[in-house]
Amino acid sequence: MDPIVELCKKHNVTLIEDAAESLGTTYKGKYTGTFGDYGIFSFNGNKIITTSGGGMLVSNNEERIAKVRFWSTQSRDKARHYQHSELGFNYRMSNVVAGIGRGQLKVLDQRVAKKKYIFEFYKRELGELDGIEFMPIKDWNEPNYWLSCITLSGRVKPIDIMEVLEKENIESRPIWKPMHMQPVFEGYDFIGEGVSEKIFESGVCLPSDTKMTDEDLNRVCQIIKSLWK
Ligand SMILES: Cc1ncc(COP(=O)(O)O)c(C=O)c1O
Known about the structure:
This protein is an alpha+beta fold. The chain has seven helices and ten strands. It has two domains: 2-105, Aspartate Aminotransferase, domain 2 (3-Layer(aba) Sandwich); 108-228, Alpha-Beta Complex (Aspartate Aminotransferase, domain 1). Strand 2 (26-27) and strand 3 (30-31) form a beta hairpin. The relative contact order is 0.11.
């Protein structure tokens, strides 16, 4: 984050940090989502904590947050009747959903601990297989381990792992397709040196649900290992 923050400061660019998946992660001891002028988090059903859908915008700028709150609640002017001087949106979080979110916040630490356990389990069982690499963990970051992902550089390809797991009715997926490779953005310019393409082509997201038992994890590992025999 340091170089990005520095670059934005230098050129006076507003920094909006997409921390959708990373709630609970720290970079040099500071939580992700708190480095920029704004941070966003997703509470979609697949995230580390969920409200079934929706998310959260955070900022230290109270004035701007008040404005966003205004827009997200249909831009209602201070009037007895419904009056709108600006276009608004119906993006507010309902009280029921907010209640679920408050409950979920209490289990965030437990979720991170279980996700870390899952990552370490896979790394211990699969880390020595030829050509497998796990997400690098540096001494300056503590991830929330939301999703355990591997990249492959040997004989076994991502599709081999996805297919062998699928035969056992176990879902795994490629790592996300980069935006500039999406058909909808075909023909648009992009800046990059092929890192995201390489990760997309060589990566697999392993089953990482916090409800997984040791037995489940072990089953996934044994099936994957069978490809190296
Ligand atoms: C990095 C990133 N940004 C944005 C989103 C979108 O979040 P939502 O599904 O809440 O719209 C996701 C969802 O997975 C994400 O991983």
